[in-house]
């Protein structure tokens, strides 16, 4: 049985997707992704719909484990790991190009991170206003 493991990151969220041959079940942290918020379900369906349009019906199960970060960052990380797993599973350059044309963040991680706070201040930018009189 073919087993593919990929990962995705967004901010401090890290997702690991394990793709195996099966009947199309996708779970995030051992729960069906259909139990997420409506917008998050749509975000997770995007790579699946694109793959189905390009290559037709595919049969695989994906188990995604995500930790760290917030709710939306976890969804973005899971989406990235899912798209990478599908591309690796199909070995399709056409699908890879389609993902990149649709949304580059489906295959390329967003490397932006939170800027650290400056010494003696509680924020990274915008210093406190001082009175000179």
Mean pLDDT across every amino acid position = 93
Q: Which oligomeric state applies? A: single chain
Tell me the radius of gyration: 19 Å
Please trace the helix and strand order, writing H or E for each element. Answer: EEEEHEHH
Q: What portion of residues belong to β-strands?
A: 15-25%
Q: Give the class from helix and strand content and strand pairing.
A: alpha+beta
The CATH topology label is Ribosomal Protein S5, domain 2
Number of helices: 3
The level-1 CATH class: Alpha Beta
What are its keywords?
Ribosomal Protein S5, domain 2; 133 residues; alpha+beta; 5 strands; 3 helices
Summarize the structure.
This protein is an alpha+beta fold and 133 residues long. It has 3 helices and 5 strands.
Structural notes for this entry:
The chain has 133 residues and is of the alpha+beta class. It has a single domain, classed as Ribosomal Protein S5, domain 2, CATH 3.30.230. Helix content is 36%, strand content 23%. It contains 3 helices and 5 strands. It has a 5-stranded mixed beta sheet with strand order 1-2-5-3-4. β3 (26-28) and β4 form a beta hairpin. α1 packs parallel to α2. The longest helix has 20 residues, at 71-90.
